[in-house]
Amino acid sequence: MTVFAFLSAGGGVGKTTMALHLAHRFLLEGRRVLLVDLDPSAGLSTALLGEEGAARAEESGLTVGHLLWRLLKGAPVDWAGYVARPRLGGLEVDLLVGGEELSDVMGSIWFSATWPSPESVLGRLLGPVFAAYEVVILDTIPFYERRYSMSAFFAAEKVVVVAHPYGAEPARLRRMFAKFAQVLQTTPLDMKTRLLVNKVGNDREGKAWRERLAQAAIPVFKTVIGDRVAYSRVPEMAYVKDRKARGEVESWFREVVEWAATEVEVF
Ligand SMILES: Nc1ncnc2c1ncn2[C@@H]1O[C@H](COP(=O)(O)OP(=O)(O)O)[C@@H](O)[C@H]1O
Ligand SMILES: [Mg+2]
């Protein structure tokens, strides 16, 4: 089993989009995949279930936030009842739905749980659920809401930091990695973390960012994901019909699989 977490410094960089594309690649390989929407605004769940579907899960008390409450209280729980089964590119995928309930439970976890550290509680609670899958993909919200990034970082074996490196993003990334180094006692060079450059154009600015990032002390995926309409067409997964987009995802996927097979270095 491999748990991947998608993190970012800024918002709207393509975490959810790329998490879905990775899930789709693993589904095509016949893997048992669980998507976990750790977003109170339920971006990924809405993409897969539609607005109504995501709202229904919230009303029925069947989101990952509700599940976490039960696990936190130590109440007996049949977690399979919380798993939605939407389609992604025509294939069925398991999903723990995001929603507003997450905000409250994450707050509670953060401020009340002290053992062994608040960052580790989410992974510990959901561990038995993750164990039932070959691939688990956690989608989060940007680092300015630290609890989500930190919890996902702790729960994951591999952390994909998605970056759309324009404007203030490089500065935000530097701040985020500095905080990781301080709080999680890990460095950007940790084999656990890799940067995915997304939505970069073939213009001069895009090229300049790519070169700058290649020199940064952060491991970066060689594959760069271009700015292409096909990527926004989810859950149909329109990228498979776009030769360039499919080539990018396949190349990135090969890197991911190779990376996932390597052990995390312990410093
Ligand atoms: N490579 C890309 N090319 C074109 N559009 C993209 C790409 N990646 C993401 N998008 C679009 O950018 C917007 C933000 O993406 P999203 O995955 O929701 O970001 P995040 O989850 O980081 O907030 C969405 O409208 C999405 O369709
Ligand atoms: Mg998102």
Automatic annotation (TrEMBL):
Pfam families noted in UniProt: CbiA
SUPFAM superfamilies assigned: P-loop containing nucleoside triphosphate hydrolases
Residues annotated as domain CobQ/CobB/MinD/ParA nucleotide binding: 5-236
Protein name as it appears in the record: Chromosome partitioning ATPase, ParA family protein
Protein's organism: Pyrobaculum calidifontis (strain DSM 21063 / JCM 11548 / VA1)
